[in-house]
Amino acid sequence: MRRLPRHFFTAAILLGAGLIAASGCADNKTALFVRGVIAIQSPSCEAKADPSATMLGGGVMDVALTNEYWAALLVGNQLTERGSRDQVRTETDRVSLTGAVVDVQNSSGGTLSGGSYTTDATGFVDPASGSTPSYGVVFVRLVPSSVSVSPGQQLTVKVHVFGKTLGGRYIESGDLSYPISVCSGCLVSFPSDAYDPANPSAGCTGDPGSAAEPCYPGQDQPIDCRLCTQNPSCVPPG
Questions:
Q1: Whether the predicted pLDDT of 21 surpasses 50
Q2: Between the CA of residue 138 and those of 9, 27, 101, 192, what are the distances in Å?
Q3: pLDDT tens-digit map of 98-132
Q4: Residue ranges, CATH 2.60.40, the chain
Q5: Reported CATH class of domain 29-183
Q6: Which helix (H) or strand (E) element contains residue 20?
Q7: What is the rounded CA–CA span in Å between residue 186 and residue 196?
Q8: In angstroms, what CA-CA distances link 55 with 58, 62, 132, 156, 235?
Q9: What pTM, to 2 d.p., does this model score?
């Protein structure tokens, strides 16, 4: 029986290991993960890549004020850093985020018309430091204006992000499920000093003072009626 040279087996083993390494990032959806949706508060309207940041357990979308919903996703990277100055080796496991896959579902789990789509996104996440993940932020539109929603609906948005490492390997996260309640006018607040009960037709009047406009009007944060006087939903109840 003819024996194959030893170097043939060595090459085969190395080739197999290379294929596993090349495909590992694409198959392993734990290396990159979406931790949650960051609560963005006015007046700063900042989304910090910090795991101690306040996270939203769910969202509110007021269709009287907006027709879309945006989210700041906190994305973690568990790939271990490989760069070394001593060995003159550049870091290849930093991740450049390039997009997200979104699925907008109703309360029965069905996808809304036009609610399943891929969208561009931009973000960057450094590699983990030992067993501690590094974090980045990416903004994704979870409900686009092209998807028709109605007050009283309870939505569940499933979203995952994807990108490439600096080494050129494709990587994607698992899904985050995020509930959104849809309403009409529920986020408009009517302070007692904003209108005259004897003359409600005058609308919201006066100086809103220190009231700050929400970062995304119609989304999650209440808005003082004096900041949206041109919207019919901001007219005080008569």
A1: no
A2: 45, 22, 13, 38
A3: 999 999 999 999 999 999 999 999 999 999 988 89
A4: 29-183
A5: mainly beta
A6: helix 6-27
A7: 21
A8: 9, 20, 19, 17, 32
A9: 0.82
